[in-house]
Amino acid sequence: MSISLYDLTVGSYVRTVGALGGILQKGAEHFAKEGIDPAEVVATRLYPDMANFHFQVTSVRHHSLAAIEGMKAGEFRPPKYEDCDYAALQAMTAEALAALKAQSRDEIDALAGGKVVFKIGGNEIPFTTEGFALSFSLPNFYFHATTAYDMLRMKGVPLGKLDFLGGINSDG
Predict the structure, then answer these.
(1) Distance (Å, rounded) from C-alpha 137 to C-alpha 60?
(2) In sequence order, what DSSP letters do the residues of 127-158 get, joined into one string?
(3) What domains appear along the chain, each with residue ranges and CATH number?
(4) Sequential pLDDT tens for the chain (172 residues)
């Protein structure tokens, strides 16, 4: 069985973005119960030189939905981050999930073999669509999703591995 570009990207993104939505909800419930200010969580860093929780959640959206948009346009750029609160991060995640679920399998699979240029500052890094997904988008996507999970665990949110996995599909 071969794997399609849609399964590789959208299939992976939907599962993890959906899981992130559940993780964020568990976080909100925990913070309300424990009297933790969600604004404190949004600004949380694992280490002083690491990006904050807001950046991690926003980056999950960027390296999933914006990556698909970049594949379609043939160009991907770093995101513009705007400050927002915890509820806005939840809404952003839900909106990204809905937009990912609305992607057409045929349209995404038709992008296979295409080109994507990552533009950052004055630099341009060329990729094939598959190379962009496998060596850039997916690793960044999972890094930021994992870091957001870890930050919530650090804040005492009762999460486990299955929360992160978002369900297991034996078909892929």
Answers:
(1) 10
(2) EEHHHHIIIIIHHHHHHHHHHHHHHHHHTT--
(3) 5-165 (1.20.120.450)
(4) 588 999 999 999 999 999 999 999 999 999 999 999 999 999 999 999 999 999 999 999 999 999 999 999 999 999 888 889 999 999 999 999 999 999 999 999 999 999 999 999 999 999 999 999 999 999 999 999 999 999 999 999 999 999 999 766 655 5
Residue 6 to residue 126: CA distance in whole angstroms: 21
Residue 88 burial (10 A CB sphere; 0-12, 13-18, 19+): middle
Helix (H) or strand (E) holding 117: strand 115-120
